Automatic annotation (TrEMBL):
GO terms for cellular component: cytoplasm; membrane. The keyword Membrane applies. Keywords: Membrane, Ubl conjugation pathway. InterPro entries: PUB-like_dom_sf, PUB_domain, Ubiquitin-like_domsf, UBX_dom, UBXN6_PUB. Residues 8-24 have a biased composition (Basic and acidic residues). This is UBX domain-containing protein 6. It is found in: Membrane. May negatively regulate the ATPase activity of VCP, an ATP-driven segregase that associates with different cofactors to control a wide variety of cellular processes. As a cofactor of VCP, it may play a role in the transport of CAV1 to lysosomes for degradation. It may also play a role in endoplasmic reticulum-associated degradation (ERAD) of misfolded proteins. Together with VCP and other cofactors, it may play a role in macroautophagy, regulating for instance the clearance of damaged lysosomes. It comes from Podarcis lilfordi. Its main location: membrane. GO terms for biological process: response to stress. Interacts with VCP through the PUB domain (via C-terminus) and VIM motif (via N-terminus); the interaction is direct. Forms a ternary complex with CAV1 and VCP. Interacts with SYVN1. Interacts with HERPUD1. Interacts with VCPKMT. May interact with DERL1. Interacts with PLAA, VCP and YOD1; may form a complex involved in macroautophagy. Interacts with LMAN1.
Length: 421
């Protein structure tokens, strides 16, 4: 008989009981020093300004800043395209395309007309030539014209006048007739001025080297008044004190043109601008930097002030006046001349210069305040104006049966009329 096998008993290792977690340790509170540091940090955080939501004013400022930046970028990018109208000094000048060849001046002594950059040389030349006719007047003109520092000129002239006064008041005292050239006052106030030595020689002084009393073989240079020259010193002193700088006069370069649709088109030479081409380029770069300053909202008054600063870039203005018959009168002016100078210029060209008239600026507004400067009226650097007779006077002439005036300008001006290209 077979045996039933006993099942195999497998011994299992007894399960280990899970270890209990150790009792939690007691946490210690922050020290007094830590609590004080935390309180200080919290106080600092509370003091920082909290960001505020953007207001409508912020939105406006941001928009203004964006527009100004866009404008500056567009200006830099389009400078080459827009140079014809806004920055003519940066382009090559084609004489055949210019509205006027340059700015010219007339010498009041000789009547010679020269370009702007030649005027100082022409004035000096004229003064030297005038010395052959009147050496005292020429020396006075040279002192007042050829020395730029007006304060030094004033001090030097007053010192010379004092020398002459002393001689005139003490004619018998020989010491006043001699002026030591090495004298400190003479060197600092008179010797440094152009024309002063010519003045002394012209009024009757001559240079002399005299011995120094008590010093053997020592000599000093003096101006000594010659005999017979005392009587005219007072007159010469008055001429010196009343002298004024001799200035070249701006030539209007009057032109008359036939009626033309090109009347409002201007091409100006670099003479019209007070800054060089390099300075103009620098101005363009500075416009970008100015955006930061313009981030605040600009008022109308602020914009107008900025526009006036821009106008200071121009020294001259080329103006055209269109008459009822279509003829065009052109002239050159200082940018800061008053409107009255423009009215006087036009009046001198009229056949009937006794009749009242009006000048209308671009846009149609009348130039009524003749004391205003041309640049303040927006007429710089160039503008086309319209001439109109006073309406009431014309109505009276018409009512009285007066003849219609065919031509406004003087006939001799129309003989030299040109074609505006």
């Amino acid at each position: 008989m077979s045996r039933t096998p006993h099942p195999r008993v497998v011994e299992r290792a007894p399960k280990e009981k899970p270890k209990a977690d150790p009792p939690p340790k007691c946490r210690q509170g922050p020290t007094n020093e830590a609590q004080m540091a935390a309180a200080a940090a919290l106080a600092r955080l509370e003091q920082k300004p909290k960001p505020r939501p953007p207001s409508s004013q912020d939105a406006i400022r941001n928009q203004v800043k964006k527009e100004l930046m866009a404008e500056a970028a567009a200006s830099d990018k389009g400078a080459a395209v827009d140079q014809k109208n806004s920055l003519p000094a940066l382009q090559e000048e084609d004489p055949s395309m210019l509205s006027v060849s340059g700015v010219y001046f007339t010498c009041p002594l000789t009547g010679a007309t020269v370009r702007k950059d030649k005027r100082e040389a022409q004035i000096k030349k004229a003064i030297l030539e005038h010395a052959a006719q009147d050496p005292v007047a020429a020396a006075v003109m040279e002192i007042h014209t050829c020395n730029r520092d007006r304060e030094k000129v004033k001090l030097g002239v007053e010192t010379i006048a004092k020398y002459l006064d002393n001689i005139h008041l003490h004619p018998e005292e020989e010491k006043y007739r001699k002026i030591k050239l090495q004298n400190k006052v003479f060197q600092e106030r008179i010797h440094c001025l152009e024309g002063t030595h010519k003045f002394f020689q012209a009024v009757g002084f001559e240079k002399a080297t005299l011995s120094v009393p008590g010093q053997e073989e020592a000599t000093e240079d003096f101006y000594v008044l010659k005999e017979g020259k005392l009587g005219d010193l007072k007159e010469h002193k008055e001429k010196l004190l009343s002298g004024e700088p001799l200035r070249a006069q701006l030539d209007r370069q009057l032109r008359v043109f036939k009626p033309s649709p090109q009347a409002s088109r201007f091409e100006l030479p670099s003479d019209f601008f007070s800054i060089t081409a390099e300075e103009l380029k620098r101005e363009q770069r500075l416009r970008t930097e100015a955006v930061e300053k313009a981030s605040m909202l600009r008022t109308k008054a602020m914009r107008e002030k900025e526009e006036q600063r821009e106008l200071r870039k121009y020294n001259y203005a080329l103006l055209r006046i269109r008459f009822p018959d279509g003829y065009i009168l052109q002239g050159t002016f200082y940018a800061r001349e008053p409107v009255s100078a423009l009215y006087q210029f036009v009046r001198e060209t009229l056949q009937n210069n006794w009749l009242p008239f009006e000048l209308l600026a671009p846009g149609g507004h009348k130039l009524t305040d003749e004391s205003m400067a041309l640049n303040e009226c927006g007429l710089v650097p160039s503008a086309l104006l319209t001439f109109a007779w006073d309406a009431d006077v014309m109505a009276d002439i018409k009512a009285s049966g007066g003849e219609h005036m065919e031509s406004v300008l003087k006939p001799d001006l129309l003989l030299a009329v040109q074609t505006l290209s």
